[in-house]
Structures are given as C-alpha cells and as structure tokens.
Design goal:
Blueprint lengths: L1 H21 L2 H17 L4 H30 L2 E3 L10 E3 L2 H5 L4 E3 H17 L5 E3 L23 E5 L2 E2 L5 E2 L48 E2 L1 H13 L6 E5 L2 H7 L6 E2 L11 E6 L2
Parallel strand pairs: 2-4, 9-10
Antiparallel strand pairs: 1-3, 5-11, 6-7, 6-8, 9-11
Helix pairs in contact: 1-2, 2-3
Amino acid sequence: MLRRLILLSGAGLLFVVLTALTQLGGLIFLASLALAWALRLAGSTRAMAVLAGIVLFLAGVPLANLFVAPALATLNGRVALPCEMSAGTSYAALSPVYCALGRTYARAEVQAMLEAMGRDLGRDDPGLVVATLDANFPVLDGFPLPPHLSHDDGRRIDLAYFYTDAAGKPLPLAAPSFLGYWGFEEPPTPADAACTDKTRWLTFRWDMDWFQAFVRKDRRLDQERTAAMLRWLVEKGPEHGVTKILLEPHMVKRLGVTSPLIRFQGCRAARHDDHIHVEVGG
C-alpha cells in the first residue's frame, strides 16, 4: 500500500512538473503510462511495457510540441515562431530547446513586431538575426510559463542580447549561456546593483552561481547591436504595439537608451541583465 502511494505521488508530481515546463508534457506522460498499462493487460512483460512507455514519452514530448502544438496554437490565436535560421529569416530561437519544449508561441502582433524589427535593423546590418528566448506556450491564456511571472497570454517575449567572440566578430544566435539566460552582465560597481539584499525570500531573482561554470567566458556583449535593438524597441516599437520593456537599470545606463517604456522588474522577479523582456499590446 505504501509503495503504491509513493508511486502515485511521484507520478502526480512528475505530471505537474512536466505540465509546468512544457504544457503538453504532462499529457504525453499520462499517455505513456496508459500505454504501459494497456500492454501489461495484453500480456506483455513488465520490462517491455515500461520500455514502450519510456519511448513514447521521450519521443512524444518533442514531436507533440513540434507538430501538434502549432495546430492547437492557431485555435488560441497564436503562431509558432521560427526555430532556426533560414534564408530571409531575421529572427529565430537561440536554442532548439525552446521549440522542443513548446515555449516559442506568440500572438501574431508579436510576430509582426519581430519581423519589422529584424527588417529595419537588417537594412543597416545585413545578416543580423535577432535571437528569441522564452515566448509563451501554445494554448490557454493565463497558463503560466515557469519560472516567469508573466508570459501567460501570448504577448510577451524575451530577446537575447547580441554577442561577439573574443576578437570582436559578431556571432549569430550565440550567447555566453547555451540557454541565453543566466549569462549575466554584472553591474560595473556594487553601487550600480539594483538589489543587494541576498536574504530575499519567495523570489525568482536568482544569481545562479552554480550555473556560471557553464557560461562561456569568450563571449562579449555586442553593445552597439544590443543598443540598436533597444533603441528600435523604444522609438519604433510602439508603432508595432510595444507597450513595456523590462531591463536591469545598470543595463539601461550602459546601453545609453532611456524611455518611459523601459521599466525595472523589481527585486523579486528574474534578473534582466541577460535578456530584454518585451510586451506587445494588452
């Protein structure tokens, strides 16, 4: 009895985690359990049933997010943003991880804004590709996109900074962190830090010290290109529905772009000195 309770509790917790991280992942997990159960009823060995369930789960999550989710997204007024660079594409996901987890969906207004920004920036900088990070899940307004406090209505998207290699050569779809997040641009002095209280509770403002071992030190912030992107967002962005931009105060100062649209997210939300958060409409 206790063993069964532990298994059910573990399965329930895994369902919640997978649903929170990928939205459709929890459903695929239930389908894999159902398949294993059906195979056992049909006389299959436990090992074969478990293996079949694992295969369905491992293949089903990325396949569902790549092929099923786009169709579901259209029912909720969202579109799938590009997963990789291609001819004529001026923006794409920094990592295929975002597409595999179904976190690259947004409303058509966001897509139109990205296309306009990429087109305008590309006139003066041919070959430039804007790197997108988390956008939204494919369906259900109000469904959160952990660990974000927003990104729940298809109108939010995070944009990676631009970077160069150690020699100053621009790098397409590259960042110090393979995820784009947590490769922080640290404040130049302690006085420039927006939040110095290290004993905050119930906060998403993580310094991710353990992750810094995986951050590449040969990537440099492309300040000119990043400033150009931010400048476009505050000057031309409102014509395409941009209503809010979240950025760390020391990055606003460093990039030299100010606007009432740019706001500080506060000390309990994620740090924004590794990406730019943009909201369109709403």
